[in-house]
Each structure stands twice: as structure tokens, then as C-alpha cells.
Amino acid sequence: MREVDQVIAARLSSSVPLVSQVAQYIISAGGKRLRPALLLLMSGALEYRGEQRFNLAAVVEFIHTATLLHDDVVDESTLRRGRPTANESFGNPASVLVGDFLYSRAFQMMVDTGNMRVMQILAEATNIIAEGEVQQLMNTHDASLTEAAYLNVIRSKTAKLFEASARLAAVLAGAPAEMEAACADYGQALGTAFQVIDDVLDYDGNAAEMGKNLGDDLREGKVTLPLIVAMQRGSAEQCVLIRTAIEEGETENLAAVIDIVKTTGALDATRQAAAAQAQLAIDAIVGLPRNAYTEGLLQLAASLLDRRI
């Protein structure tokens, strides 16, 4: 990861000061760096030691960071990773345009691999992520959203870049098609579990620990699995309260919504759904070589269920 950070620092340079300033602001905020870590772990599991793993790990982090910059503008978010969002600090225009810079820089870097398959994977991933973002926008304030539709969005919006990160490692390692598919399956299941747990934490997390405001999803009219399950299990009165909060995007009754989500067992059910995805990830890589990196991948899937930030 130190090697990846060096690549990130080197490739953030720009002759336009504001570009470097905004990009450095959000990159330096840290974050979990899960996607590059996943690419590195999968590369190690497949015994690939080439320098391109550092380059592509930085690429997926740039793509992820670009989506964060754009997301925060769309969602009108003010807090991320415990400090003001880039759009809050520098304004929406700068955030959008620097997000564009990071996307284009990522594509410059992926060309360095000279591998058309790498470019195909990342081009497809960024396109599907964009579609997922638009679909989520269309779904906002729609209290009738089904669990299937919810999962479809997060597999596009979040899990796709996890899937691409794992698949890229297999491509770099020259793994056979069936092993590449297994790596991709691991990434998709891991990314899905990650997002499902993230949605749990919006109703059961600690704002100080998470570095973002509780109830943001509700304020933005996002229908997530805890709310879907709570409406399925709750009384007619409870359903009306949640439906109204979703449709109006209001958080005045956030405490009541959280109470309903907890008392109906919706949080437990959502955690069970995440556990099922984590198990799918674990099952997907049973055929990988057994080494410390593979053990790391198994531990990563298991640890998501205990995530608090």
C-alpha cells in the first residue's frame, strides 16, 4: 500500500493548482482503500509480483475517488471521513471538474499497461457504475422499491469496482478464464456485502466513528435494505411513518425510524443478508492457491460483518 500511495502522489500532479489542491484534499482524507487492497491481495494470492499491480491499484482508487466527488455533489453531502466534503470546502463546480480530472487521469494510467483486456474491464466498470448512479437517482424517494431493485443498484454502483479490482489481478497474473471468473465473483460478493453493511451503519452506526452524519440516506430519499425489511415487517402505522420519511426526505422522525428498524429486526435481517454475500465471496475462492494472501482475502470477507466504520 505504501507503493500505491507513492503512485497516487506522483500521478496527482497537475499544472493547475486547484486540481492538485482538491484531489489531494480528498485523497489525503484516507479512507479504507479497500479496492486497491483487494487488487493487491488477489495479485498476491495468484502469485503476481509485477509493478503494474501498484499502478492499477492507484487507478481503481482514482476512479473510486472520482465517484465520491460526484456523489457528494449530487447528494449535497457536507461531511465525509470526519471532515467537510470537497464540495463543501471548494464548491460544486470544482468538485465535479476535479472528479473528471481523476477519471481521465485513471484512463491515462491504465493505458500504461498496454493491455486491452485491462482497459476493457475498467471501461465497462466505469460505465456500469455511472448507470448505477443514475438508477439510484431515479429510485430516490420511491418507497415501493423492492429488495431486488435495491441489490441491482448496489451491484452496479458499488460492487462493480470491487469486481473489477479482483478481476484485474487475475488478468495481470495471466490466470485461466475460470479462475478469473472466480476472482470476479469474490469481488462482486464482497462489494455487495460491504454496501449492505454500510446501509446498516446509517441506522446503527456512530457518527463520530464513521465520519459522516447518521440518517444521510433517509435525508437523500435513498431506500436501503433496512427500510425495505422494516416496511415488510412493521405495522401499518410504522410503514406509513417510514414511507412518509422516504418520500419527503425528512429526518425529523429519524429517531422513530431507527427504533422501527431495530424493533422489527430489520437490522439483524440486513446483517444476515450481508453475511450471505460474505459467504458467497469465501466460497468463490476455494480454488485459489493457499497462501498468506488468500488467507487475507478470507479474513477480509469475514471482517466486513464486524464493520463499524
TrEMBL record:
The protein's name in its UniProt record: Octaprenyl diphosphate synthase
Source organism per UniProt: Diaphorobacter ruginosibacter
Broad class of enzyme this protein falls into: transferase
Catalytic activity: 5 isopentenyl diphosphate + (2E,6E)-farnesyl diphosphate = all-trans-octaprenyl diphosphate + 5 diphosphate
One Gene Ontology MF term: all-trans-octaprenyl-diphosphate synthase activity
Physiological role: Supplies octaprenyl diphosphate, the precursor for the side chain of the isoprenoid quinones ubiquinone and menaquinone.
InterPro entries, per the entry: Isoprenoid_synthase_dom_sf, Polyprenyl_synt, Polyprenyl_synt_CS
EC number: 2.5.1.90
Cofactor names: Mg(2+)
Segments passing through the bilayer: none
GO biological process, one term: isoprenoid biosynthetic process
Transferase recorded as keyword: yes
UniProt xrefs under Pfam families: polyprenyl_synt (PF00348)
Keywords associated with the record: Magnesium, Metal-binding, Transferase
Family per record: Belongs to the FPP/GGPP synthase family.
